[in-house]
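Look over this entry.
=====
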Amino acid sequence: MPSAAAGAPPERRPIQPLPDILVSQIAAGEVIERPASVVKELLENAIDSGATRIELRIEEGGMRRIAVTDDGCGIPAAELVLALRRHATSKIGSLEELERVGTLGFRGEALASIASVARLRITSRTADAPHASAHDTGAGESMPAAGTQGTTVEVFDLYSATPARRKFLKSPGTETAHCIEALRRVALAHPGVGFSAWVDGRRVEDLPASSWQERGLAGLGEDYQHAHRMIEAGAPALGVAGLLGLPTISRARADRQYSYVNGRFVRDRLLMHAVKQAYADVLHGDRHPAYVLFLRIDPALVDVNVHPAKIEVRFRDPQAVHRAVFHAVRDALRASAAEHPALAGGAALTGGGRALPLPEHVQTLQRTLPIRQPSSVYSVKDQTDPELTGRAPSTPGIPARPIHAAPTAASVAAAMAFLAPGAADAATQADAAEVDAAEAAPLGYAIGQLHGIYVLAQNAHGLVVVDMHAAHERVVYEKLKAAHDARSVPVQPLLIPATFRADRLDVRLVEDEAPLLAALGLELSVLSPTAIAVRGVPALLASGDPAALARSVLASLRETGSADALAGHRDALLATMACHAAVRANRRLSIEEMNALLRDMERTAGADQCNHGRPTWVQVGLQELDRWFLRGR
């Protein structure tokens, strides 16, 4: 509503420059949002000074006192007053330096903004000074002081000069949490600097100097100590490094996502989108990943002078940055199951090395107990006993071998036909020689099946438990994607078409989206206004229920809309198809079928998680097993 009488001309005020203190207070509204903003600015100044040790002290959530002490180069006594002036800085001096900023601070606004809304005292000493000097904005004068080399900045009674701002602050506990989080964000990008934090006289954080990997894990938390992937990729002009939390340890909130550009913590939608896309294939629903991501880029290719808080950046070539981050994160997450951190140290990292030697007591156990050995073969009794194999009493093409014999490539290839039609021929052609029994696979060899749901395998590290449906679902899904990308989805025609009742919307989809369905490997035809026939399915899914598969795909198309279904929702459609083809619970598998599944998992990208982001296997170490049974006590 108008605040003055209609038609009344406003009173004209003359144009005049604003007082310096008011200009600083206006700027402080952008730079100093809350006590954590003060902490961030002071910590970044300490980093720029070359400090190797930084201490933070806060009282009453930072509203009463914030103090940051460092052992950096210090400020000369003659420059203490100048340091509090707006746009006074030693970090840049020309436009060329502004375009290639190599420091965290450069605007020269932080100290002036803080001093405009609170009382501030700086105590500093350089290496060649006989003593320290201090300047207090309350007293308005500088004086000699006691102190070692470095700088201490103390902020008292924050927002005392602008009391209205205090009304927007939260409780001291909440503001304290934000201050500690601000310290962590700075500390993660500077592992060579030691940090400590004290809250109301009590130490709450102590981060000694360490490697970037150790500092990153400290930031992610204990849950990710053994549930992460490390990446280091790219060139000096554009490189990506970091730690990625495994999708199986996701979070309900996006509260452990740290992105850095040249050591500066940023909130950039481009980087966040690239990471989200990379996780999309292994993390579904409303879960969020945890990660610490460092982007190294030529300073001339990024503009950090976007916002006074310096938390936003702009890239000269955003598409190149997006591609670099997306591919680095996706490739790390899509490593095969053989490259899981739980298997690090032996054949796990290469997928082809030799297994670690088994402990003596395990070797003794194998020699004395009548259990199946860690091999993909079984005894003559195994081959003829359907209770053990799940096969008919006489299975042609699988010769009898001693229980300790190594499997041949031909026998493994024959078993692989269960998982992937055509895989047997490929395996036979690839290597007709016998497999060296000493080259144990990272996921080990099957020893049995539990409740028709889990495959139990033994590897060099202990026991591996596999969810056979989830694992097979992922294997089939990745093969479907590869075939679709190559535009060569093999189709298995059905001798007898499978028919099912459908409504008019489904019939219309079959008529309108025939090319799209054909690209997915589905051959559907309309029999009547209420009936559809399935005449062909992808060869990988030939063993499933054709009618149920077709219904699910049509239902997905109806939900997402057919126009952009293939481009925007292709993976979801293929995941639905893979779920229908995967082995179901209570399906009895033979030992060779289980081993074929394990080998496929070792070769399949992203096999650590199913299509819904759940784990497909778990490693139980020998030490854990020994602990269960109190061995060694």
